[in-house]
Amino acid sequence: MRAMRIYFAGSISGGREDVQLYAEIITLLGEFGTVVTEHVGDRSLTAETGEDLEPRLIHDRDLQWLRSADALVAEVSTPSLGVGYEIAYGVQLRKRVLCLYRPAQGRRLSAMVAGCPGLRLIEYGDAEELRTAIKHFFSGE
Ligand code: 6IA
Q1: 5, 33, 83, 114: most buried, per Cβ within 10 A?
Q2: 95 phi/psi in degrees, rounded to 5
Q3: Closest by Cα among 70, 68, 72 to 60
Q4: C-alpha 12 – ligand 1 centre gap (Å)
Q5: 104 in the Ramachandran plot: left (φ > 0), alpha (ψ -120 to 50) or beta?
Q6: Are the CB atoms for 62 and 29 separated by under 8 Å?
Q7: Model-level pTM greater than 0.70?
Q8: What is the Å distance from ligand 1's center to 141 Cα?
């Protein structure tokens, strides 16, 4: 049986404040399958420099990876147009979609994610809750 392919989505142009967290999530996801977007957790990929590729190439390549994936996991605490777009695309393709959100004072998750029936939204506060959320999602609970 081939390993599950997991597309991880996290903010790039939207801000890289959580990049360390993305790297930790990617490591956790590695226990359940192959993460096809490891670069999202790469510190050297910043909002300013980004990848030195044409936007069209990035768009087409990322959507191809998403089509080839079994599941989409998105960290949505830092708002990102690209992550929102990928979530919508994943939901349309009827992929399994997990959104991970860290509530904090002064921010509110977009209703387009919070109210979307085609995805699973889990709020977490610490690394333990994050680990449990991911484990439950992949064990089908
Ligand atoms: O709107 P954002 O940039 O925050 O969107 C982030 C999401 O879109 C991530 O989950 C990625 O899958 C995808 N994405 C956006 N930009 C890139 C990129 N280079 N390379 C790979 N995936 C990307 C960024 C270059 C840019 C800063 C000019």
Answers
A1: 83
A2: -75, 160
A3: 68
A4: 5
A5: beta
A6: no
A7: yes
A8: 30
Cβ(18)–Cβ(48) under 8 Å?
no
Residues whose CB is less than 8 angstroms from the CB of residue 67 and which lie 6 or more positions away in sequence, other chains included: 93
Mutation choice for ligand 1 from 29, 58, 87, CB with most ligand atoms inside 8 A: 58
Give one word for 50, left, alpha or beta, with left for phi > 0 and alpha for psi -120 to 50.
Answer: left
Ligand 1: lining residues by beta carbon, under 6 Å? 9-14, 37, 39-40, 47, 50-51, 58, 62, 80-83, 86
Q: Residue 9's closest CA among 81, 83, 77?
A: 83
Q: Which two tokens stand for residue 41?
A: 């957790």
Per-residue pLDDT reduced to its tens digit, 63-106: 999 999 999 999 999 999 999 999 999 999 999 999 999 999 99
